[in-house]
Amino acid sequence: MDLKQVAKDTTKFLSSYLTYQAVRIVISQLSETNPPLAIWLSNFSATGKIQDGEVYIQELIEVDQPLAFRIMIVRAHLADEVTEFLPEMTIAAIAQANMQHRVHYLERVTQFNLSPESSDPDSI
Predict the structure, then answer these.
(1) What's the rounded Cα separation, in Å, for the pair 109 and 4?
(2) How buried is residue 109: exposed, middle or buried, by Cβ count under 10 Å (0-12/13-18/19+)?
(3) What domains appear along the chain, each with residue ranges and CATH number?
(4) Sign of the torsion angle spanned by Cα atoms 92, 95, 99, 100
(5) pLDDT tens for residues 51-110?
């Protein structure tokens, strides 16, 4: 297991997700202040490029540099605010989810199939 590669992949995924969240925030802001630009950004973002946050930002810079910079600022702010809590929250969430999966599995495998014939005490 290459933990460095897992960390790099996780970082790239998180960066792309924070880019997506930054775009949502900027679209929400623009919908109040500049609805046509909000619609344009929404359409630009709907093409699937946003799956890779860095490619998305690079393409947006080519088309609308101020808007791309705005998204980068919001993304950086989100990263500053969110990453502080992420390690603890991630570990706790995974532990909780794993426990729930185990509980559901144990409940499923320990259930008795009580058919009508087997629940009749005279049939024993």
Answers:
(1) 37
(2) exposed
(3) 3-83 (1.10.1200.210)
(4) positive
(5) 999 999 999 999 999 999 999 999 999 999 998 888 899 999 999 999 999 999 998 898
Closest CA to 78 of 24, 4, 34: 24
Tell me the pLDDT tens digit for each residue of 28-42: 999 999 999 999 999
Q: Is the Cα dihedral 16, 21, 23, 24 positive or negative? A: positive
Q: What is the dihedral of CA 94, 100, 103, 108, to 10 degrees?
A: -120
**Joined tokens for residue 37:** 């630009």
Question: Long-range pairs for 83-91 at CB < 8 Å and ≥24 separation?
Answer: 86/14
- The structure tokens listed for 87 are 């390690």
Q: What angle do CA 14, 48, 2 make, to 5 degrees?
A: 35
- Tokens representing 27 are 């679209």
